[in-house]
Amino acid sequence: MGRVKTKLIKRLSNDLFSEYAAKLSKEFQENKQLLGELASINSKKMRNVIAGMLTKLKKNEEVL
């Protein structure tokens, strides 16, 4: 069973995914760097969680 994501993480991830889906990749490191350029997130942990969620969304998009 995975970690539960909060509504804030899900909302931010979905908003960023709908806006920048073409720029995102299936690699966590690339998404983490891109997220640093696109959004101003102060917390390193929150940035990593959102980057992980974006990676998950991108991988799920390719499967469907």
* Mean pLDDT over the residues: 92
Question: Percent helix among the residues?
Answer: over 70%
The CATH architecture classification is Orthogonal Bundle
Distance between the termini: 22 Å
As residue ranges, the low-confidence spans are none
Instruction: Please tell me the total number of domains.
Output: 1
From the alpha-carbon coordinates, what is the Rg to the nearest angstrom? 11 Å
- The count of DSSP E runs of length 2 or more, i.e. the number of strands, is 0
Describe the SSE topology.
Layout: H1 7-20, H2 28-38, H3 44-63
Plain-language structure description:
With 64 residues, the protein is mainly α. It has one domain: Ribosomal protein S17 (Diphtheria Toxin Repressor, domain 2, Orthogonal Bundle). The chain is 70% helix and 0% strand. The chain has 3 helices and no strands. Helix 1 (7-20) packs across helix 3 (44-63) and helix 2 (28-38) packs across helix 3 (44-63).
Structure at a glance:
The protein has 64 residues and is an all-alpha fold.
Key attributes of the depicted protein:
3 helices, single chain, 64 residues, mainly alpha, 70% helix, Diphtheria Toxin Repressor, domain 2
